[in-house]
UniProtKB/TrEMBL annotation:
<keyword id="KW-0812">Transmembrane</keyword>
<feature type="transmembrane region" description="Helical">
    <location>
        <begin position="25"/>
        <end position="44"/>
    </location>
</feature>
<protein>
    <submittedName>
        <fullName>PH domain-containing protein</fullName>
    </submittedName>
</protein>
<keyword id="KW-0472">Membrane</keyword>
<keyword id="KW-1133">Transmembrane helix</keyword>
<feature type="domain" description="YdbS-like PH">
    <location>
        <begin position="75"/>
        <end position="152"/>
    </location>
</feature>
<feature type="transmembrane region" description="Helical">
    <location>
        <begin position="50"/>
        <end position="70"/>
    </location>
</feature>
<dbReference type="InterPro" id="IPR005182">
    <property type="entry name" value="YdbS-like_PH"/>
</dbReference>
<dbReference type="Pfam" id="PF03703">
    <property type="entry name" value="bPH_2"/>
</dbReference>
Amino acid sequence: MDDLFAPATGAWQRVSPRLATVRRIVIAAIAAPVVIAGIVLAVLLPDQRWIGAAVTVATLPLAAWGGVWAGHNQRTWGYVENADDLLVTRGVMFKRLVAIPYGRMQFVDVQAGPLARAFGIATVTLHTASTETAADIPGLPSDEATRLRNRLTELGESRGAGL
């Protein structure tokens, strides 16, 4: 079954493990205030302490699961630059493979928020006329994101795309 998602040529280029770290920081930044709010509720509302305890008890395992998910998800992202198209794969439970012909790309977008920039990663987004074939490649090291953006732009222009 994994042959269905194997590239015809080449090997998958994987994204940086720093993507998982960034996602874990975001999960912790969301979970920490919720846990603190649950503790504060338990202290301030002694008659209804169960509300604060329920918030805290529900948030901690969800945050832990999110941390595990971040690592698994990061390891599933990959891309291959073929002669005529770019393959992008992802997914733990629901795997997805998208083939984007270079001639169909309209533009290439590179994004990096403050946290991603602090960790030296960026997201490259390939846009086509169809939203189904647009693809993101998150967690690329900044120099690789720049190289990929330049290469895809050159290939798109040489293939008559609207870049």
